[in-house]
Write a structure and sequence with these properties.
heterodimer, A: 166 residues, alpha+beta, seven-stranded antiparallel sheet, two-stranded antiparallel ribbon, globular, B: 255 residues, six-stranded mixed sheet, elongated
């Protein structure tokens, strides 16, 4: 009986990770967080304060990449006062087309950089976030770009968990 | 057949029409006069002219390029008018230091100088002839959050000061002459005391006049930079996807 309970607990503990519909790429020097913030499906941090995260959004509206790119850019520019400093096409190592938006924003007096990578696969929108001080992001740009490229989508994973509840 | 109609206009009626015509032409003249009246007043230097169209600038939501168009300040020198221009501007920018550097650079470019720079604010003074252009350039540096423009007419104050200065100089000259002709020590001491007082007043008035001249020649521009506030930005439309609102550094970096 106890053995069965342990097995069930183990299954429930690993299920969210195992059922994650993506394989995150953790940049060198980062550790994955056992996140309490459930709005992220994955988050990892660098000891100096650089953070990367992934959200999986159920794209039940079937918005295309152009739609979500525009929506994210508008939200950050007009809603939060971020300045768009880079907007370019990206692809992951499986050839999935995506978009990278890079924003500048002062947190207090310190200039920060916030990057949002977007990929769409079937009915899922993958939102990859990377942020930290501008200096730190500049130093780690290569690793962060690589993490965007190495991000891969799992095919054929049933969706039990959906952040936005759709 | 020929018809002729002879109308006899009574003398009183002719007099009435005559008056009516005179009154009409009189009205025309008075309209013309009222149109030119402000200019005449301005030259006379009596009351301060109406502030430039943008003296009160209450539209922080307007994007920078559009507002820059509207911030033209009538700094064109009007004969006899001595005006002090002062602008306070708050701008939302990314990278405050770059904004401060830009203001400093454009000030030097316009032949102005830096008064103070600290934190996220900078105070500069630019030649009044370059005030318009400098203000436009500053407003183009970021999203305009606040703008204030003050114009003070100091013509009367300066003219009064000049008259008082002239009088004081005349008094001083007479006192010096008087001192030269004074034989009694007590009288000489009294004249010297008065001379010292007048000289003191004279110096003070000269300094004040110089300050006014400097304030008229150079306009003050105070610029404050801030990170953009969401509420200050133009947000007319919001998509119904709550996760969009959670995007941003503050959420990502809070572990």
């Amino acid at each position: 009986m106890l053995k069965n309970a342990l097995w069930i607990s183990l299954v429930f503990a690993v299920a969210p990770v195992a059922c994650r519909p993506f394989v995150p790429a953790i940049p060198p020097g980062f550790v994955e967080l056992d996140d309490r913030d459930k709005s992220f499906d994955f988050r990892a941090t660098h000891p100096d304060g650089l953070v990367t995260g992934v959200r999986v959004i159920r794209n039940s509206q079937d918005g295309d990449l152009a739609f979500w790119t525009r929506a994210v850019a508008n939200e950050l520019r007009l809603g939060k006062g971020y300045r768009l400093v880079r907007d370019e096409a990206i692809t992951n190592h499986d050839g999935l087309a995506g978009r990278l938006l890079e924003f500048g924003h002062d947190e207090g007096k310190s200039p920060h950089t916030y990057r949002v990578g977007l990929y769409i696969h079937r009915h899922d929108l993958f939102v990859l976030e990377q942020g930290g001080t501008r200096e730190l992001v500049t130093t780690h740009t290569k690793e962060l770009d690589q993490a965007l490229h190495d991000f891969s989508v799992k095919t054929g994973v049933p969706r039990f968990f959906s952040y936005n509840g759709a | 057949m020929r018809f002729s109609v002879e109308v006899t206009v009574p003398h009183a009626l002719r007099w009435f029409f005559g008056c009516f015509l005179v009154l009409c032409s009189g009205c025309g003249i008075s309209t013309e006069r009222s149109a030119t009246a402000p200019a005449a007043r301005a030259v006379a230097g009596a009351p301060a002219p109406p502030p430039p169209a943008d003296a009160a600038l209450p539209e922080p939501e307007t994007p920078a390029p559009a507002t820059a168009e509207r911030t033209t300040v009538a700094t064109t020198e009007q004969p006899g008018l001595l005006l002090i221009y002062q602008a306070n501007v708050a701008l939302a920018v990314y990278e405050v230091d770059k904004g401060l550097d830009a203001v400093e650079a454009l000030t030097r470019g316009a032949g102005g100088y830096l008064v103070s720079r600290g934190g996220n604010a900078i105070v500069v003074r630019v030649p009044t002839s370059h005030f318009d252009g400098s203000l436009k350039q500053v407003l183009a540096l970021g999203e305009v959050l606040e703008r204030e423009l003050h114009v003070e007419d100091v013509t009367a104050k300066v003219r009064d000061l000049e008259v008082r200065l002239k009088n004081a100089e005349a008094v001083r000259k007479r006192l010096v002459e008087l001192l030269a002709g004074t034989a009694k020590t007590a009288d000489a001491l009294a004249v010297e005391r008065e001379l010292a007082r007048v000289t003191d007043d004279l110096e003070r008035m000269k300094a004040e006049l110089k300050r006014f001249q400097e304030l008229v020649a150079y306009s003050t521009l105070t610029v404050r930079f801030e990170a953009p506030h969401a509420e200050a930005l133009d947000r007319r439309f919001k998509l119904p996807f709550p996760w969009l609102e959670e995007l941003g550094l503050s959420h990502l970096l809070s572990l």
